[in-house]
Amino acid sequence: MQIIIAEESGFCYGVKRALELVDEYLKKGLKFDTLGPLIHNPFVVEELKSKGVNPIDKLEETDKKYVMIRTHGVPPEVYRRAQELGITLLDATCPFVSRAQEAARKLSEEGYIVVVVGKRDHPEVLGILGNVRGKAYVVCEPEEIRSLNLKGKRVGFVCQTTFRHDVFARCVTEALKVVAEIKIINTRCHTTERRQNSVLKIADETDLTIIIGGRNSSNTKRLYELASMKGRAYHIESPDELKEEWFENAEKVGIAAGASTPDWLVEKTVEKIKSFERRS
Length: 280
Ligand code: SF4
Hints:
This protein is an alpha/beta fold. It is 42% helix and 19% strand. Strand 2 (32-35), helix 2 and strand 3 (55-56) form a beta-alpha-beta unit.
């Protein structure tokens, strides 16, 4: 059996950077928590806890002087609240997310109604919205554009960094039917695009695809959806979930990992699949 690992797989730039920052601050002897789980992977979150870095839901919950902001970013009021509480924020917001926040702020300052295409309750989207100075909407499908009062208005579009490109494009097309002026800032993260194309490629080339990543990770779920469109695919969080029967008669197996999945999980998955082969 041949095992092919997707070219673009595992930790993305933003996640790598966040974990490097964790190491850097720990080496300096700083004690800190993270506002929310640093990344969407339970194994990594547990490892961080063992180093004393715990996820908290609210700044008020920490007993430490420092709190790390994760890659998704936060709205400006979190920075203000941290100041009131005497907490120093260690900012691991991904630069691509900061760019989306700035784009939304700029559009609103230029007088555009801002439409964010993304998931309404996603922390990144809440952070982007928090930067808007005027009116803003969040939509996750083109149909929702019709229910907004955008006729004759000046509308600015941004997108959640990891959201679907095709949906973003269809939302913009829908708005074009009624608005007076439109300004689009493409805030999608190119890592996401490359990762998704890479999954489509291996799903095409193999008999089945294993997608590894946290169940709470949107980008992993999307990789699974794409692989499923091409053929047989399974989403696992840990190699323990692999079932031997999935690999019966499979000649080529594709593996792809979400942006928050550490390399050692990919390696363990490969080992486990190979152990099935040895047994048969
Ligand atoms: S997926 Fe893109 S935007 Fe999100 S953390 Fe990774 S590099 Fe940054």
